[in-house]
Design goal:
Helices cover 65% and strands 0% of the residues. It is mainly α.
Length: 272
């Protein structure tokens, strides 16, 4: 599946009368979304610039735990695992987790999820923080769970969040093996097995319900191959009726995908 940004249909009255059109979903915030993008773009080469962008996002919405999770990535890059743990705990205690975007989903503009996933994989470096490792594993799993449950609901965030949870369990098993604590190895393995059972079912269900939105929409609209390519890239198409038909189909398919995701998330095991 390759979700692609969708054009937003705007009613004529919304163009003429302020407040007449439908309000944007709360996860649409161009300012914070741009800050997240800057954080991502500067993260590898300009750490101060990335930190400044993230602080701007946190100032704009202090109650959003997602910014704290991104801050933990900066700490991990500095090998400050104690600092990363504190940032993750702050995020886990936040009122909400929102991955702000600039346009309504379906969207693939969530590159910062890769940073969260990297924090999840930092659990395998437990030899660098043995004293806080058990708490680190636990808090990282909570982070992964909350990211999977974040708004806007999206297959990308669910897959990345679930991947973080799974990795933290796997790292903890290796940690207890290194301590030769078989009882805790087996207890953690049981937790991982239960989560993996949900994860495997989720992936199978997702694959059966999620279509290539552009491909399906273009087919229903009767678009040629060249029109489909232009439509996928947001370029204008002469036949506006085809665009209207395709947009409606994409919205319907996406709604089905979201319903499936929300149903699966209700059964997602909450990690300890």
């Amino acid at each position: 599946m390759k979700p692609i940004p969708i054009a937003v249909a705007v009613f004529a009255c919304a163009l003429l009368i302020p407040g007449c059109g439908p309000a944007d979903p709360p996860e649409i915030n161009k300012g914070i979304a741009d800050n997240y993008q800057t954080f991502y773009d500067k993260g590898a080469s300009d750490r101060p610039g990335a930190a400044a962008a993230l602080q701007a996002a946190k100032k704009a919405d202090p109650a959003n735990g997602y910014s704290d999770y991104l801050e933990s990535w900066l700490k991990v890059q500095d090998k400050d695992f104690a600092g990363a743990l504190e940032a993750i705990k702050t995020g886990n205690g936040a009122k909400k987790v929102v991955i702000y975007v600039t346009a309504p989903p379906p969207t693939d503009s969530m590159p910062t999820l890769g940073r969260v996933r990297q924090v999840g994989f930092s659990t395998e470096k437990f030899a660098s923080f043995p004293d806080i490792a058990p708490e680190y594993f636990s808090e990282v799993r909570k982070m992964g769970y909350r990211v999977a449950q974040a708004e806007p609901v999206c297959s990308l965030s669910v897959l990345n969040g679930a991947g973080v949870v799974r990795k933290a369990y796997q790292s903890e098993i290796e940690f207890w093996k290194s301590k030769k604590d078989q009882a805790k190895v087996e207890a953690t393995q049981r937790q991982l097995d239960a989560f993996a059972a949900w994860y495997d079912t989720f992936q199978t269900d997702l694959a059966s319900k999620v279509a290539d939105l552009v491909e399906e929409a273009a087919k229903v609209a009767g678009m040629s191959e060249s029109e489909k390519m232009d439509y996928a890239q947001g370029k204008p198409i002469k036949d506006s009726h085809k665009v209207e038909v395709a947009d409606k189909k994409r919205e319907a398919l996406y709604a089905e995908e979201i319903n499936s995701l929300r149903k699966s998330l209700k059964t997602m095991p909450k990690p300890e």
